[in-house]
Structure formats: structure tokens, C-alpha cells
Amino acid sequence: MSFSNASPGKDVSSDDLKSKIPLVTSPKLKNHVVHVAKVEISQNTFVVMAGPNTVENEEMMVATANSVKLSGGHMLRGGAYKPLTFPYRSEKYFETGIDGLKWLKTASLESGLPSVSEVTSVRNLDSVASHVDMLQIGTRNMQNFDLLTEAANTNMPILLKRGFGSSLRDWLGAAEYILNQGNDQIVLCERGVVAPHTHRSTSRFLLDLQVVPAFKELSFLPIITDPSHATFWAPWVEPLALASIAAGADGLMIEVHPDPRNAAVDPLQAISFEEFGALLTKSFGVFQLIRSKNTQNPTDSKE
Ligand code: PEP
Ligand code: MN
């Protein structure tokens, strides 16, 4: 189906396209590419960002980076500043701040994988920006408009996660803030939304796969999914990752850890190096199948 602003999602009116989100929905973004060091991210490519939830120490970061690279991953993730739900920290549950950023950078340089890490506040923007290749704005900050504006003004590429209670319209509005500062280097990331039925008591979110084609009707920016945070349950990461690709996602963010069940943060959702390797092999296969130019779209013959 060709790109058309004539049939916006029900949540976005044609007036919105003109007056509220003209930049993020602009046809001028057709074939737009986001550059993160040497990695190109667009609606025509498939990118995998992977790594632990938290940068715990240098050794685990370097081991993870090398393994992600070996499996065919393109970027390294890891949080140094974490938006943790409860204020208490312990030897087992911590964030590593500036030390973590240094370890992330070492692992990134050693493996050659560009890095992405979360900036949780304008207070740590400068330190995150000086150690990584891409800034991540997390679900809890999607509508922190000061942070969006300041992050945009670094001119660095930005991974904009969807607020877990935000509509597509609000998410587009957040991206518009970044574009309005003259920064078009944006990748969106669906990471699960709150929903009454999540099918396990440990799962807080439901991966909204429907938002992927809905977003693509409106914008040419790349969109990826994060099945790790959405499911909070390692055995569901692979099926939801593959389903994301089938739904049209341009990439994945996956939590990988050398010893998943002993991860400092979110141990239930991380997968092992071996599981990650197997997942990527299947992911590349599904991407080929879905996006191959030779794959006939069943609706084509009916039009
Ligand atoms: C993360 O990626 O580590 C993270 C905290 O994600 P989210 O903002 O989606 O919860
Ligand atoms: Mn996390």
C-alpha cells in the first residue's frame, strides 16, 4: 500500500497532520536514514540493539559486546542511569552512573558496535552524550519536554521509547518536539503498554504490535520494538521479536546477559548469549521472508 496521509489512524485527525505533527508525518522523510556511527537505520533496513539492562561492570560489558557482535547484532545497549521504580539500591540492585558509561564505551570501542544508553534527566545529559553514540529516552520520560528539547539540541541520534500509557498521537507529538529543534535523527521504539490482560502476573505490559503498521501509515521514521521490556519474561522474547518483524518493525532492542537469572536488574527478561544467537538467525530469516522484494503482497493482485 502506498504512503498516504489521507487515511490517518483514528487517533490522528487530518488537522493534526497540518498543525500539530507536520514534521514527523512529512512525506519529505521518505527513505530517511538515521545514522548511528556506521550503522544506518531506516524503514528499509533491520537493526538489532542488544545488551544487558544495566551496565554492571566492564568485564560483563565486553563479553556481551563481543557476543552480540559475533551473533550479528549491530549496536550495544546498556543503562548506566536507570529509572528504577523504587528508590532502594543494594549490592544486587544498583546503577553505575559515570563508571557504567565508561565501561559501555570501552566495550563499544573494543567490539566496534556503536552504543545506546538512557538519559534519565537533563542533569546527566552531558555525561551520557559524551560517552555514547545514541541517546535513549525511556518510557517514563517520553513527555519530559525539557529533556526532549535538550537531547534534540545535542544533534545526536535519539531512540524515543513510547510512554507505556501514551497514544500513538502523543508519541508522534514527542517526536515532533525533537524534529522541531532541527534534529531528524530519531528512531521510535515500542516497548509495551499497560493493559488489563498481560497473561502472567509478572508481566506489567503488553507489546502493541498494531502500533507498528499504524505508525507506518503516518511516518517514514524507523520504528523498532523491545520485546524484553514488554513481556518481562525471557521465554516470550523470541516469539514477540519474530512477530514484531512480521508486523513491519525495522529492528529490535533485546536484553542479553552473560548470566541472565543473576542480572542486577530485570533478571526475568534477559536471554543468554546462545538464545540471542538463535533468535538472530531466525530474525534475519523472517526479515528476508517478509521484506524480500520478490515476496508478493497478496493485496497487489486484487488492486
Ligand atoms: C531500558 O531500556 O533499560 C528501559 C528502562 O526501558 P523502558 O524505558 O522502556 O522501561
Ligand atoms: Mn530495563
Descriptive account of the structure:
With 303 residues, the chain is α/β, with parallel strands linked by helices. The protein is built from 10 helices and 10 strands. The strands form 2 sheets. It has an 8-stranded parallel sheet with strand order 9-8-7-6-5-4-3-10. Strands 1-2 form a two-stranded antiparallel ribbon. Helix 3 links the parallel strand 4 (75-77) and strand 5. Helix 2 (58-71) runs parallel beside helix 3 (97-111), helix 2 (58-71) packs parallel to helix 10 and helix 9 (237-246) packs parallel to helix 10. The structure holds phosphoenolpyruvate and manganese (II) ion.
Q: In terms of topology, how is this protein built?
A:
Layout: H1 14-19, E1 34-36, E2 39-41, E3 47-51, H2 58-71, E4 75-77, H3 97-111, E5 115-118, H4 125-129, E6 134-137, H5 145-152, E7 158-161, H6 168-179, E8 186-190, H7 211-216, E9 223-225, H8 227-231, H9 237-246, E10 251-255, H10 273-291
Parallel strand pairs: 3-4, 3-10, 4-5, 5-6, 6-7, 7-8, 8-9
Antiparallel strand pairs: 1-2
